[in-house]
Design brief:
Elements lengths: L7 H10 L5 H18 L22 H4 L1
């Protein structure tokens, strides 16, 4: 088991949201979520200037359509 210092405000907030869940479960879930997020993070910089933006598909109205 590893012992780490955790900000009391953060762990208390998590405890209030997840009543009845141990601190170990809270920390494990937080780490798992962070790892998954980092693994799934796309480096959008590699697509700069290479992708076409279709405002119609995105549901964005042009200035002319709003009038």
């Amino acid at each position: 088991m590893t012992q780490v210092a955790i900000d009391d405000k953060l762990i208390n907030k998590a405890r209030s949201l997840l009543e009845g869940v141990s601190d170990e479960v809270i920390v494990t879930a937080a780490l798992e979520g962070w790892i998954v997020g980092k693994e799934n993070q796309i480096d959008f910089e590699q697509y700069r200037g290479k992708l076409h933006w279709d405002p119609e598909f995105a549901g964005v109205e042009s200035a002319d359509e709003r009038r």
